[in-house]
Amino acid sequence: MLLRRVRDNRADAEAVRAVATAAFGPGAHDERRRVGFLRRVRHLAATDPNGCWLAEDDAGRPLGAVLAGLRENLWGLSLLAVLPQAQGKGVGGELMRRAVAHGRGTLRGMICATPHPAAPRVCRAAGFSLHPTMRLTGTVDAARLTAPDGPAIEGGAAHRDLMDSVDRRVRGAAHGPDHGELLLHCRVVVADDLAGSGYCYLDDGGRVELLAATSRRIAVRLLTSALLSLPAGADTAVRHLTAGQEWAVDVGLAAGLELAADGYLCLRGMRPPAPYLPSVAYL
């Protein structure tokens, strides 16, 4: 087995996607999601080359891939995938060691893990605590939602400083360049008044990508406003809700969404941030 860094080019992005598809299944056949995945790989390969690795066999065929980013004092794992035929042979462990080394000296870490039995095992071995999560999915019933208690506006690049400031207060580290990437393919709703500050990203498929707020009141306002902004009859998903995010559970249930178990929010050196809904890709 050979390990090399993921390069910021289409060929390597496609190789990482092929590994992820083989490991986790094809998922939705959606061109937008495919393009979004390729963008995510190239973004992290450009910002964090020491955290992004491909494992290949002697013939140069991909066996596994890992993507990890370091934002200020917070390390995050965006992806760890190994081909089914290569699992159980040390590929995932070696990739994880390379990714963790990218955050050497950083105590804080975050991973959104799937329910797959191998995921919590790998995360625990890396020293992470496991926090079970829930997800909300379904069609939004706008008539059942209470109107927001204040303004939430369409945001953009002008709000990046505000969003980084919210990040630092809620999770201890700004997203920095990830906001620039998210703004290219997501809408963002922003609130900022005496009740607090926060933001909520919606991807182009109507799913909540990331939410952070300095108070539960602002978080409720943002999530409600985001769901109400979707077209009539639109489906959505709100994922990785820890037990401390009951405010989000209440909004989702009021909107007619279904609640189910999800995976794990894996944390090192920190408690579950709240009010906060992490991004699987950008945490």
Automatic annotation (TrEMBL):
Organism: Streptomyces johnsoniae
The protein's Enzyme Commission number: 2.3.1.-
Root EC class: transferase
Acyltransferase is among the record's keywords: yes
Protein's name in the database: GNAT family N-acetyltransferase
Domain N-acetyltransferase per the UniProt entry, residue ranges: 1-146
Origin superkingdom: Bacteria
CDD domains: NAT_SF
Record flagged with keyword Disulfide bond: no
Pfam family, one: Acetyltransf_1
Sorted UniProt keywords: Acyltransferase, Transferase
Gene Ontology molecular function: acyltransferase activity
